[in-house]
Design a protein that fits this description.
about 0% strand; mainly alpha; about 200 residues; single chain; Arc Repressor Mutant, subunit A; Rna Polymerase Sigma Factor, Chain: A
Amino acid sequence: MPVGVRLANVRGVPHPATDLGSVRSDADLLNAHLAGDRFAFAELFSRHRTQLYRLARRRSQSVEDADDAVQEAMLAAHRGAGSFRHDAAVSSWLHRIVLNACRDRLRRTVIRPTAPLEDDAVVSVGDRTGEVETAIVVRQALSQLSVAQRAAVIAVDMHGYSVAEAAALLGIAEGTVKSRCARARARLALLLGSPAPG
């Protein structure tokens, strides 16, 4: 991948190889990239980077996650340019790849949550045994949920996404998020031996 496509400049600094006077269309640039033009993809990325970054930032938990998602998306687009079928605008194709990268990053985070779990038990200062035991029990319970239910309940209940945000990130309807969360909570209540939330 050309150095110019790296995202060190993702938020606005032009790449020196970009010809600002170019009138080549996005499709022309993609075709030039496929034909071996080393700078065509960098120019295509430069043209769309601001919109792609804004899209990733709206769909990510942090600036770093947005940067990583755009980086992964552009690597995927660079490598997979030959699969573009010209049945949509190149910009739409790039947007879809960024959305998929954001969704993939969220799923990886949801499957391996990093949020600390609270422990209701009183433990001495510095003794995290109870906290660790609670985390193990909760993770075991979460692992017994379906992947779909686990993704929804962790996105909403642990990461604080709204139902609408979780639906957009997981690529499902809001009603589906609600029903998956309800089923997951009921199952967790049984597994953890507490009454189901009302």
